[in-house]
Design goal:
The chain is 37% helix and 23% strand. The chain is an alpha/beta fold. The chain folds into two domains: 217 residues, P-loop containing nucleotide triphosphate hydrolases (Rossmann fold), CATH 3.40.50; 30 residues, no CATH class. A six-stranded mixed β-sheet has the order 6-7-8-3-9-10, sandwiched between helices. A four-stranded antiparallel β-sheet has the order 2-1-4-5, with helices on one face. A hairpin with a 2-residue loop joins strand 1 and strand 2. Helix 3 packs across helix 4 and helix 5 packs parallel to helix 6. The protein is globular.
């Protein structure tokens, strides 16, 4: 039986080596229940190795790790019943429709009411209008949302998302971000690995920066920003933002480009 105040994920002194390469060199962190925790780091930092150990797909050389208060080394069966893992690429069957994918997984897990489960998840992830379409016709964002929906069948309390927006366009990333936020709102604990700073900033309640197999800092976004003192600027030449460029090119709601607004105002004054 789990206790409400115990962390959903508890990691202490986690180490892992491959031949002469030390991938993890003593990793410590906790993840609170119902929160989004981001492991932020570049390629090769050890993020995926941590996820594999926590999901019982690999064994640590040293250290302790528990998920939902089950030890990943000695209680792997209990851990697997408590989690779902979504890898870097969507694991969906493109020949089937979105609805058929969900029904199939529900039946494979021997759950009653597979049709109702599928309908609920399709609605939750805004896929109802495309429920009968083959997944091969889905956009990248739709496939990823379906992939996450499939991972929630059986209501696992903990979900691992390993680089969930890799290869997606900006609009698809926003769609997936929205789906991930909804997971935490429904009480699911999310451990997210990413190399995108904006992704961690947008989603995570806490962020741990993993560098060369160690966590070098762990805190909220506010706490991390407080590590650097405010910059004192004597003079700065302002560079245009993307928003500035956008409105300069397409104009405001009246269709007047920003660089023409001054001219238009001057002409109006002279009349």
């Amino acid at each position: 039986m789990t206790t409400q105040h115990a962390p959903a994920i508890h990691v202490r002194g986690l180490k892992k080596s491959f031949d002469d390469l030390d991938v993890l060199r003593g990793v410590d962190f906790d993840v609170a229940r119902g929160s989004i925790f981001a492991l932020l780091g570049s390629n090769g930092a050890g993020k995926t190795t941590i996820v594999k150990i926590l999901s019982t797909l690999a064994r640590a050389d040293a250290g302790i790790a528990t998920v939902n208060e089950f030890d990943v080394a000695t209680q792997p069966g209990n851990v697997r019943e408590s989690i779902s893992l979504t890898g870097q690429f969507a694991a969906v069957d493109e020949i089937l429709s979105g609805r058929e994918n969900l029904v199939l997984i529900a039946k494979l897990r021997h759950l009653k009411g597979a049709d109702t489960i599928a309908d609920d998840l399709l609605e939750r992830f805004s896929l109802t209008d495309a429920d009968t379409r083959k997944v091969s016709t889905y956009s990248g964002g739709m496939r990823r949302r379906l992939d996450i929906a499939m991972s929630l069948i059986g209501n696992p309390p903990v979900i691992f998302l390993d680089e969930p927006t890799t290869g997606l366009d900006p609009q698809a990333r926003i769609e997936v971000w929205r789906a991930i936020k909804e997971l935490a709102e429904h009480g699911t604990t999310v451990l997210l690995t990413t190399q995108y700073l904006d992704e961690a900033e947008q989603l995570a309640d806490r962020i741990a920066i993993l560098h060369r197999g160690r966590i070098i800092v762990n805190g909220t976004l506010t706490e991390l920003k407080a590590l650097l003192p405010p910059a004192k600027i004597e003079y700065v030449e302002k560079q245009p933002s993307l928003e500035d460029v956008f409105f300069a090119l397409v104009g405001d709601e009246n269709g007047v480009p920003s660089h023409d607004r001054g001219t238009a105002a001057t002409s109006k004054e002279q009349q």
